[in-house]
From TrEMBL:
Entry superkingdom: Bacteria
Protein name (database record): Zinc-binding alcohol dehydrogenase family protein
InterPro entries in the record: ADH-like_C, NAD(P)-bd_dom_sf, Zinc-ADH_QOR/CCCR
One Pfam family this sequence matches: ADH_zinc_N
Organism: Sphingomonas kyeonggiensis
Domain Alcohol dehydrogenase-like C-terminal span(s) in chain numbering: 7-123
Alphabetic keyword roster: NADP
Length: 185
C-alpha cells in the first residue's frame, strides 16, 4: 500500500487487516508515520524514500500480488512490473499525469481505478452497494474492529480555516484525516 499513513491509507490498512488474510505492507518514512501505520494494523512498513523494490526484498517480499497505489502512481509505475507478481492487481485512486500500462501486459497485471462517487454520479445499477459498504464499515467501527483516523481538527468553518486546511493537505504531509468543523457564531 503506497501511502499507508494518509487519510485513505489509514483506513485501508485497517480494512485490509480486518477483512482479508493478506500480509499488509504499507509505505511511510518518518518515525511518527511508521508508528501510526503499525497502529493501524500494517504487518510491515517500508520506507518510501528508499527504492521500493529493495525495501520489499529487505522484509522478505520480493513480489506482491496486490498494490493499492494511493498517491504518486506515476512515480511508482515503472517499478510495478518488477514488484507485482504475474496476474497481480494494481488499484489506484490518484490522478497520474500519464499512465503507460503496456509494461504490465507481459505479466497480465490488471489495473483498476476506485472513485467513491462513480455509482451515484453515473446512477449505476449497483448504486445501492454504496449503502451496503458504508453500513458494513459502520458496523466495524461500532464493534471496535476499526478506529477513526481523524488526527487533526480545525475550526470554525470559514474561508481562513478552509484555506489553512487546504494548505495542510496540499503539503502531502498530513497523517490520517483532517476535519474542518463548527460554523462561526
Amino acid at each position: 500500500m503506497i501511502n499507508g499513513s494518509g487519510g485513505v491509507g489509514s483506513i485501508l490498512v485497517q480494512l485490509a487487516r480486518q477483512l482479508t488474510g493478506l500480509t499488509v505492507i504499507a509505505t511511510a518514512s518518518r518515525p511518527d508515520r511508521v508508528e501510526w501505520v503499525k497502529k493501524m494494523g500494517a504487518h510491515h512498513v517500508v520506507d518510501y524514500t528508499r527504492p521500493l523494490d529493495e525495501e520489499l526484498v529487505r522484509i522478505g517480499f520480493p513480489r506482491v500480488d496486490y498494490v493499492a497505489s494511493l498517491t504518486a502512481t506515476d512515480h511508482y509505475l515503472p517499478l510495478f512490473p518488477k514488484i507485482v507478481s504475474a496476474q497481480g492487481h494494481i488499484a489506484l485512486i490518484d490522478d497520474p499525469k500519464s499512465l503507460d500500462i503496456v509494461p504490465l501486459k507481459r505479466k497480465a497485471i490488471s489495473v483498476s481505478w476506485e472513485f467513491m462517487f462513480t455509482r451515484s454520479m453515473f446512477q449505476t445499477d449497483d448504486m445501492g452497494e454504496q449503502r451496503v459498504l458504508l453500513n458494513a464499515v459502520s458496523r466495524l467501527v461500532e464493534e471496535g474492529r476499526i478506529a477513526s483516523t481523524v488526527t487533526r481538527r480545525l475550526s470554525p468553518i470559514d474561508a481562513a480555516t478552509l484555506k489553512e486546511a487546504h494548505r495542510i493537505v496540499e503539503t502531502g504531509s498530513s497523517m490520517g484525516k483532517l476535519v474542518v468543523e463548527g460554523f462561526p457564531a
